[in-house]
Amino acid sequence: MPVRRRLPGGGPAPSAPAHASTWKDAPVATSVRARSDGSPPPAAPPSSPGPRGRRPAPGGWRSTLYRWDLKAVPYVFVAPFFLTFAAFGLFPLIYTGWLSLHRVELGGGAEWKGLENYTDLATSEFFWNALVNTFTIGVLSTVPQLLMALGLAHLLNYKLRGRGFFRVAILAPYATSIAAATLVFAQLFNADYGMINSLLEWAGVGPVDWEASKWPAQIAISTIVTWRWTGYNALIYLAAMQTVPQDLYEAASLDGASRRRQFLSVTIPSIRPTILFTIVVSTIGATQLFGEPMLYGGSVGISGGSGNQFQTLSLLMYEKGGSPAPSARPRPSPG
User: Fold this and answer.
1) Which of 212, 244, 286, 307 would staple 270 via disulfide (CB 3.0–4.6 Å)?
2) DSSP assignment, residue 267?
3) Which phi and psi (to 5°) does residue 104 adopt?
4) CB-count burial class (<10 Å; 0-12, 13-18, 19+) for 300
5) In which band, very low, low, confident or very high, does the pLDDT at 74 lie, cut at 50, 70 and 90?
6) DSSP 31
7) Rounded to an integer, what distance in angstroms lies between the CA atom of residue 216 and that of residue 310?
8) Which of 80-102 are b and which e, b meaning 16 or more Cβ less than 10 Å from the residue's Cβ?
9) How many helices (H) and strands (E) would you count in the chain?
């Protein structure tokens, strides 16, 4: 029986109609209508795929082509790289290793020697001298080169007037040919009339023989390498610094970090992969050093000076390929 409420004026409130039902009795609307006997309706037939998503029937030639298309096409796309690498990278490497076990002369056949070439190399004074020279010249040229490149990139990363000009200017030594740069530096380091010795004499230091002495010659060659490659590495560092988010610098500035602290704590960790890349590339370049010491030594450049004081591994291989006999050569100078 419905409960009657009274209005504020005292009269009874109108009751709800008898045919009205509560919300619990209301029928629930569904998207699927049942049959009259209560059984569920039949399932709708699956929609056929369009022409692009249609798969061929299994067992036919189209199905075979479809499987080959999915499995073989990716290998076809990467095959040119592997074929090129095998022809110009892997095969020469394996063939060179095979030839190292023979005695080979230009225009002649190959004579089997086994490990005799390696034992001769391990007991050769010229090899160890060239190996030490390559290492020292590499250290003297790589370490200052990368440190200066990092500093130049840090300066060019700020908003300066004429930044475009300075970026082009530091790349100019890289565009200079090895022959031109080496000949100019050979004149600067000349022991008789070079500008470097003139400046040393003006400063009260005696003249230095930059070619006949071991360490001065290596320092001079390292200077040429550093001058040529510093700008190249600086641009690589600059490109990496420009990818560092500015939010990191703003957060460090709010914490009271100075420019030096931001460089050490924000910039260096952010470009660490780039620094590793330049170290690897510079190390590889140092082991392949050839043009600078050969041109710097002039007539004795192939042998790395009169006493092999700056002969690198590349120069040694070049000399061994054309020299008649190593016994006719002077022993490397100790210092």
Assistant:
1) 244
2) I
3) -120, 135
4) middle
5) confident
6) S
7) 10
8) eeeeeeeeeeeeeeeeeeeeeee
9) 14, 2
Give the range among 4-18, 49-63, 188-202, 293-307 with minimum mean pLDDT: 4-18
Q: pLDDT-based confidence at 203, cuts 50/70/90? A: confident
Lookup: tokens for 288: 């392949």
3-state secondary structure of 208: coil
Residue indicated by tokens 């063939």: 95
Token pair for 15: 């009751």
Tokens found for residue 11: 């009269």
Largest CA distance in the chain: 135
Residue written as token pair 């022959």: 179
Alpha carbon distance 108, 110 (integer Å):
7
d(CA 167, CA 152) in angstroms, rounded, equals 10
Positive or negative: CA dihedral 253, 254, 256, 261: negative
Contact 266, 288 (CB under 8 A): no
> Residue 196 corresponds to which tokens in the numbers above?
């470097």
This prediction's pTM: 0.71
If you write DSSP's letter for every residue of 72-116 in order, what string do you get?
A: HHHHHHHHHHHHHHIIIIIHHHHHHHHHTTEEE-TTS-EEE-TTH
Distance CA 220, CA 225 (A): 9
